[in-house]
Design goal:
Length: 106
């Protein structure tokens, strides 16, 4: 994952409403949630929800699929795992090469 992509995704999740929306979708699983259900859960106007969804879709964190007259939103789990991996994969990678840094923090 590129640094710029991760930064855009984290920026999109940096808004409390979008983070709450995203967590709802992550919890929903592969079935996702209809837009109407999301609007009820969040208690926000349709135009506001549309704006927040658009930001999450642009970063690849959320997908939408039309099923007849219903628009279903889903968390894009592979993209979510990539972002989490980007943040965690190199955890403590430099600690072994710089043991004095751990002592200085203590």
């Amino acid at each position: 994952m590129k640094l710029e992509q991760a930064a855009k995704q984290l920026e999109a999740l940096g808004n409390p409403t979008r983070l709450k929306l995203y967590r709802i979708l992550v919890r929903a699983g592969e079935a996702g949630r209809p837009v109407g259900t999301l609007q009820e859960s969040l208690g926000i106007a349709a135009s506001t929800l549309s704006h927040h969804l658009h930001r999450l879709i642009l970063t690849g964190l959320v997908t939408q699929e039309r099923q007849a007259t219903t628009l279903i939103c889903r968390a894009n789990y592979p993209i979510m795992r990539d972002l989490i991996g980007f943040l965690a994969d190199e955890c403590c990678a430099d600690a072994a090469s710089n043991p004095a840094a751990g002592e200085a923090a203590a």
